[in-house]
Amino acid sequence: MLITNTFFSTKAIDALTSHPKAKIFHPYALSKEDWKSVALVCKWLNYFRSASTMMSAEKYPTLSFSLRIYFVLISYVSRLEQSSIVQESAPLAAGVHACKSKLLEFFDKSTFDSEYYYFATILDPRFKDSLFQSSDGLASSLFSDDWVSDCANALEDTCNTFYSSEDLDYTESKPMLPIPSSHTNNANDFAQDWKANLPTRTTYLPPSNSSAVEISKYLREDLTEMSPLVWWRLNAHRFPRLAVMARDYLCIPGTSVAVERVFSAGRDLISVRRASLSAETIRTLMNYRAAIMLEKRIGRPFAPRE
């Protein structure tokens, strides 16, 4: 709301800064070029707000979004750098450059510290390895061949080491849903940039008992727009090792927002006068609270499965 209100307050701010009885505000008058810069900054902030909103959710997997969101945001800021309005304004150029540098800094930390981001992206059937196999120049610079190869080997090693004893019970599955093509028409629309250029592939192979072959077959099948949790529930019998692996990695939150929400709710249960509750009591109270919130949301009593 603040971004939108700022953009639509042009006339009010101009009237205030030009009013003869408000000379104290005269030095803050904005020119037409200044207002163009303000409009760009509003679009810029709104774009990043959309990314933050997507990453801050707690009702769907978010860790698999991380690398692609970095890619989309860095692509967007790179386009801003090349725009004429930014190149003609030193403050804007400095801000965009600082933004890109900070994004690259945190991206490097994410890819250097952990392979979990790669694992989660691969195990999300909406993305798989499409980002790492992209012919886009920026993707090639962000994800080097050596890094992708090392992560792919780590994925296979992890699957062999920790997920090799799952029951291999395969049955024939239905084809996955096709993905409609997406086109980006609005350069400041994060949602369109997010969906753009997701490739599809159409190769269906019979199942195998080998982890390496299971990974290969999974990656060679089409991408899907289906929720990853739903997709894995329907296809766990085809990829038993990867299904269990996906369960473990896709449950990791991409940000600390969901954890902070839990701590915020915890203050209602654990107070100064009630600070000696056992872990089991706290868990029970939190479960009851979650059930009450769910009943309010669905409008009927919640009956857990036996």
Identify the notable features of this structure and list them briefly:
single chain, 306 residues, mainly alpha, 2 domains, 15 helices, globular
In short:
The chain has 306 residues and is an all-alpha fold. It has helices spanning 2-7, 10-18, 32-55, 66-82, 84-87, 90-113, 116-122, 137-142, 145-162, 190-195, 211-220, 228-235, 240-250, 257-269, 279-298. The chain has 15 helices and no strands.
Q: What features would you describe in this structure?
A:
Residues 215-289 form the HAT C-terminal dimerisation domain. GO terms for molecular function: protein dimerization activity. It comes from Rhizoctonia solani 123E. This is HAT family dimerization protein. The chain has 306 residues and is mainly alpha-helical. It folds into two domains: 60-250, no CATH class; 257-298, no CATH class. Helix content is 60%, strand content 0%. The chain has 15 helices and no strands. It has helices at 2-7, 10-18, 32-55, 66-82, 84-87, 90-113, 116-122, 137-142, 145-162, 190-195, 211-220, 228-235, 240-250, 257-269, 279-298. The longest helix is centred in the N-terminal third of the chain and has 24 residues, at 32-55. It is globular and about 80 Å long. It starts with a helix and ends in an 8-residue tail after the last helix.
